[in-house]
Design a protein that fits this description.
Strand content: 15-25%
Shape: elongated
Radius of gyration: 19 Å
Helix content: 40-55%
Structural class: alpha+beta
Oligomer: single chain
Largest sheet: 3 strands, antiparallel
Protein name: HTH arsR-type domain-containing protein
Number of helices: 9
Number of strands: 11
InterPro entries: ArsR-like_HTH, HTH_ArsR_DNA-bd_dom, HTH_Metal-responsive_Reg, WH-like_DNA-bd_sf, WH_DNA-bd_sf
């Protein structure tokens, strides 16, 4: 039920019961506990009660727990598909701390590896000469990214795709570049990112073989 509310939506108890595969009485008990614990807020709309995450920070915490759980699993378990109760908008593209996650980010990471832009050594990532040129052409200030007091580039486990996406200062710089160029946009109600028509044309060409 919490996954279904990660997109910032408010849903009635009946819909959440169907999503979770629970009886009405069991759903009511869970929703009461989640509300009393401060995880959910309740809105009254006529005769119906709608539930949503109480604050955006709850969604961040849920994703952090999912990522930590995924990182601790053995590799063979990471191939198990995530529950499809996760909202489609979040599965497609979302922010993960200060970088991009979801199908779009995982696909970009795979293409960067296949095209020889990056070298992956465990969780550490670095750019090749081709990758350095390509990132510079995308408008990324690599010198500034390397001066950050954090890891330059690393893999970050993606809870929805069960594969890594690009994290670290380079991942943050890539997201900032895409936002600046108008390829993607943030949304008002959640961490979902919207790919613009311009972005759909541009992103498909990144690291394309």
């Amino acid at each position: 039920m919490l996954w279904a509310l990660m997109d910032g939506s408010a849903r009635p108890a009946g819909e959440l019961a169907l999503i979770a595969g629970l009886s009405a009485s069991s759903t009511s008990g869970h929703l009461n506990r989640l509300s009393e614990g401060g995880l959910l807020a309740v809105e009254s709309r006529g005769r119906n009660r709608y539930y949503r995450l109480s604050t955006p920070e709850i969604g961040v915490a849920i994703e952090a727990l999912a990522s930590a759980s995924l990182a601790s699993q053995p590799p063979r378990m990471r191939a198990v598909p995530v529950s499809r109760t996760a909202p489609p908008a979040l599965r497609q593209a979302r922010t993960c701390y200060d970088h991009m996650a979801g199908e779009l980010a995982v696909g970009l990471f795979d293409r960067m590896k296949q095209s020889g832009w990056i070298i992956v050594d465990g969780s550490a990532v670095d750019l090749t000469a081709d990758g350095t040129d390509a990132m510079t052409q995308l408008g990324i200030d690599l010198g500034n990214a390397r001066r950050k007091r954090r890891q330059f580039a690393c893999t970050c486990p993606d809870w929805s795709e069960r594969k890594p996406h690009l994290g670290g200062a380079l991942g943050a710089a890539l997201l900032e570049s895409m936002l600046t160029q108008g390829w993607i946009e943030t949304t008002a109600t959640s961490r979902a990112l919207r790919v613009t028509p311009r972005g759909q044309r541009a992103i498909v060409g990144i690291a394309a073989e």
